[in-house]
Amino acid sequence: MAEADGKASELNGGSEEPDPGEDQRGEGDASTATEGQSGSQAAPKKAGDSAKDKPMPDAEGERVPGEGEEEEDTDSMDGSGLYSLNEEGERDGEGGRRERVKERDAVKRAARKRNRPSDGTAHHSSSSELEEEEEEEQEEEDEQAMDVWLGAELRDLGRPSWRAVPSLRLREIGRGSHQFVRRVCGARGLVQRLELQGRLERHTGCVNTLHFNPSGTRLASGSDDLRVVVWDWARRRAELEFDSGHKSNVFQAKFLPHSGDSTLAMCARDGQIRVAELSAMQRCKNTKRVAQHKGAAHKLALEPDSPCCFLSAGEDAVVFGIDLRLDRPANKLVVVKEGDKKVGLYTIFVNPVNTHHFAVGGRDQYVRIYDQRKINENDNNGVLKKFCPSHLVSSESKTNITCLLYSHDGTELLTSYNDEDIYLFDSSHSDGADYCRRYKGHRNNATVKGVNFYGPSSEFVISGSDCGHIYLWDKVSACIVQFMEGDRGGVVNCLEPHPHLPGLATSGLDHDVKLWAPTAENPTGLKGLKDVMKKNKRERDEDTVRHGDQYDTQLLWFLMRHMRNRRSQRTRREGAEGDTDESWSSPDSSDEEDGGPDHVQCMSS
């Protein structure tokens, strides 16, 4: 706790001095002053601030102190201007920004027209110059359309909900101390200060999964090297490393809750669902197969209070309910279909409040919610309700859901689409309801990419990107509040917030695990964000145009790799009568992998 006090005090250094930018900013010339300072990070006045929050300037533009004015906390001044896509740091209304862009472009076009030669001297102007001018005009129009798209559907970033100095003072007198850490973990000021703390290096392949144990003292990671490592992440050392028993890329490894960190559930490309029993002597006793999908199994869904029950979803469209107390643990709950067509699954999640409900997503655009107590496949294929962004319902593009999850209280569903955006749904809405929020700027194309909430009350949305960066959005406003370079390999897939502390672990195509903590002296400047977002959008649009060719190339790549793996497996099995692993078999299990995926977890593997 002493470290928390010291850290919070650092974050609030000079918190009792007024912001110098505020004293110089008159109400009438705020925009001009901002434009006159290139790269200025002064926080502009928010539209929602009332007169009693900030004194009105006098006639000469200087601030008149209020009699009962509260001291301004510099940690709560979190650089609101940094969240705008406008490089001058303005955050005024969207309509005003559009008008300025239009006026600026109109002035440029008028100037070019004035400089063009008259009809009498037209022979002096080459056609190439005219073409260059037309190209410049087209580029400016495209740039304007891009700015409008990036700025659409954003809300004003509200005032910070946590301020360090007042919170520390209250804790010193014993008020609100039990909520102090929780509020710190969800503070925007700390999210803005996240930076790389260190790396955990042990794997020899892409790291596809990360999971903290419930107490947050251990971190499990799984990789394409078929091994699982349990880390003492605080000391940066591996406590346990073992062979998963899988025959292809490990996609998830999770500690079962209330198991004393002695049970890990795992799934992989080979379709197997396996359970590892760990001992207190830092070794793995054994791994057992408890279910088998007829295709890759990407995700497991834990029941928050159960040490023996969880769900699995596979590309064979099957959802298994697994109960380790039974002789035959795997029970087929549902085969997900759209009409008569099976829908391969990439993701599944259990509602943390109502554990009878679970949501799945996969090779189409629909989020499907089921109730385990009343799945009747003859009635709407057993679906309780479905969600989908309205513009994707009739879309001709092949849109898949790569990851979804519920918020901390089960009221919201966050969904990431491949080569599309991230959408937030209200889980209490009726069947067919549209999304509530949309989060833009990243790129989700090359891998089956994850998404997550950050903060104890799901205050932020976090995702990796094909550009190698990590994005954090404020959930309510959909504004980007943090932007960090994640993987040198170019793709960040997995993001795991710590359950009790302000920090997270990430992984991707690099062979290491990266740890992040809010130790930066100053908030992020979001340097280069606008250019990266535009680059991601352009590449996405270009790939959409040539989607067919890209899909054929990717499918051919997978088929060649699949045939090579099957040939090597057949060679190893010659002379063997069957699988020698100790396993519990399900009547629905199969050792065959029929039906290759449209997307792969790690393209470089």
Automatic annotation (TrEMBL):
<dbReference type="InterPro" id="IPR015943">
    <property type="entry name" value="WD40/YVTN_repeat-like_dom_sf"/>
</dbReference>
<keyword id="KW-0853">WD repeat</keyword>
<dbReference type="Pfam" id="PF00400">
    <property type="entry name" value="WD40"/>
</dbReference>
<feature type="repeat" description="WD">
    <location>
        <begin position="200"/>
        <end position="232"/>
    </location>
</feature>
<protein>
    <submittedName>
        <fullName>DDB1- and CUL4-associated factor 8</fullName>
    </submittedName>
</protein>
<dbReference type="GO" id="GO:0080008">
    <property type="term" value="C:Cul4-RING E3 ubiquitin ligase complex"/>
</dbReference>
<keyword id="KW-0677">Repeat</keyword>
<dbReference type="InterPro" id="IPR036322">
    <property type="entry name" value="WD40_repeat_dom_sf"/>
</dbReference>
<dbReference type="GO" id="GO:0005737">
    <property type="term" value="C:cytoplasm"/>
</dbReference>
<dbReference type="InterPro" id="IPR045151">
    <property type="entry name" value="DCAF8"/>
</dbReference>
<feature type="compositionally biased region" description="Acidic residues">
    <location>
        <begin position="67"/>
        <end position="76"/>
    </location>
</feature>
<feature type="region of interest" description="Disordered">
    <location>
        <begin position="567"/>
        <end position="605"/>
    </location>
</feature>
<feature type="compositionally biased region" description="Acidic residues">
    <location>
        <begin position="129"/>
        <end position="144"/>
    </location>
</feature>
<dbReference type="InterPro" id="IPR001680">
    <property type="entry name" value="WD40_rpt"/>
</dbReference>
<feature type="region of interest" description="Disordered">
    <location>
        <begin position="1"/>
        <end position="144"/>
    </location>
</feature>
<feature type="compositionally biased region" description="Basic and acidic residues">
    <location>
        <begin position="46"/>
        <end position="66"/>
    </location>
</feature>
<feature type="compositionally biased region" description="Polar residues">
    <location>
        <begin position="31"/>
        <end position="41"/>
    </location>
</feature>
<feature type="compositionally biased region" description="Basic and acidic residues">
    <location>
        <begin position="92"/>
        <end position="108"/>
    </location>
</feature>
<comment type="similarity">
    <text>Belongs to the WD repeat DCAF8 family.</text>
</comment>
